[in-house]
Design a protein that fits this description.
- The chain contains 14 helices and no strands.
- Helix 1 runs antiparallel to helix 3, helix 2 runs antiparallel to helix 3 and helix 7 packs parallel to helix 9.
- The radius of gyration is 60 Å and the shape is elongated.
Amino acid sequence: MDGVALTIITLVVVAIILIVVVLNVIQSSKNKKMKKLINNLEVQKNVLDSTPIIPELSKVESYLKSEKMEVMYNDWKERLENIKNNQIPKITDMIIEAEYSLSQMDYKATLYKIAKLEMEIYKVRTNSEFLLNEIKDITNSEEKNRAIITKLKAKYREIYQKFTNEKESYGDYEKIVFKQFEIIAKSFEKFELIMENNDYTEVSELVKTISDMLKHMEVIVSEMPSVILLATSILPKKIVEIGETYKQLSSKGFPLDYLNVEYNIDEAYKKIDDILARAEKLDLEDSLLELKVLHDYFENLFNDFEKEKVTKNVYDEANDKLQNKLSKINELLTEIFSSIDDVKNLYDLSDENIEELNNIKKDFDSLNDDYNVLIQHTNNNTFAYSKLTKEIENLILRLANLETRLDGVLDQIGSMREDEVRARQQLEEIRLILKDSKNYLRQYSLPIIPKSYFVELSEAQSAIKEIVKELAKKPITIEVLNTRVDTARDLVLKIYGRTKEMIKTAKFAEMAIVYGNRYRSNT
């Protein structure tokens, strides 16, 4: 038991020792890590303290020849003193506080103070860099701006040379453009004067102004010749040509009001005048684009004129075709409805046929009204031929549909007439067949004729009388008439076949008797 207790005590002591060692290692690691962060921040503070602001600011002292520069110098000096005397010492104090918290092993407070220290260093660094850049803008102004001006002068010479090569294309605006080049040249001279006087507060703004003027002149030299050519020559000629073409077509009756040509010509002249007025001030913003839009518009007008010419021919052909068809069909409908009572008396027309005829007449009247409205619009030059052509094509399509419907009704009426004529022809043929059957029967004096034959003969004769009755009726019911004709024809053909069969049988009987008598014995 004593051995077990001793072993347990030994293990507990070893565990405690290990825990203490581990805690010390962790604590030591934290201390080193935080100490390293604080040291790094102290290095950054030292870098801030050594920022070359003072040497740069001393360079500015030689440029203090204007009140504005003195004001700027005093402001920079005040800001630098604030950084050196207030902000950097504050960082030093914060570093000391962080180190103290770390020495007390107050890690939470240490981390908080390190975070605040990082923010403060970032703030001071930003202020220092901003101040240094402002000062360098002045101290490096001559070298930087001279490099920029050298490039701008090269660009100026390039643009001016292009202008000189195309002077004639500027017309009355040549002097205006040349004057602007003189202004830019004087700006270069002003730059040299500023540099001699070391007045660097204005040089950046002047360089920017020269750069902007050159960009503007680059646009002027590039677009001005095209603007002048379009505005003073090409477009005016095209507008005059458009106006003359418009008057010619209008005098010939072309409906061109929908194009608003006269109004758009007036607006185009106003726009051209405005562009030229702005060109005198070297303001070409969107001028070339606006002139190209006008040019494209008038080009499209020529296409519209040609389209109207072609469409008018199409319309005239369609109108002649429609007018002729309407005239013929109107005459036909007038004739049909003037004799509709006679047709009703002749044939038993169905209610559907009568209703369809009335509907067709109503639709044709509507079509005639629409056509008259179209002709009025055509005579009033209200709509373009392109639109009129679509309307007349719709009318032609409606007319074709109505023709199809009318042909259907007329085919039915014509079929009734044909059935009547055919029935009368077949009546005569049936009578001839029946007559031939009787004559054929009379040629042979048959001793006996079956009674059924006379019954069938009577039925055939009755059927013929029914055809006559149907033909005599007013109106004629074609379906009944066709039934009567078919019945009579079948009965008469049956009689005709029965008669031929009877005669044929009688002939065979007679021949048998003759041959039998010839070979009969005399005894």
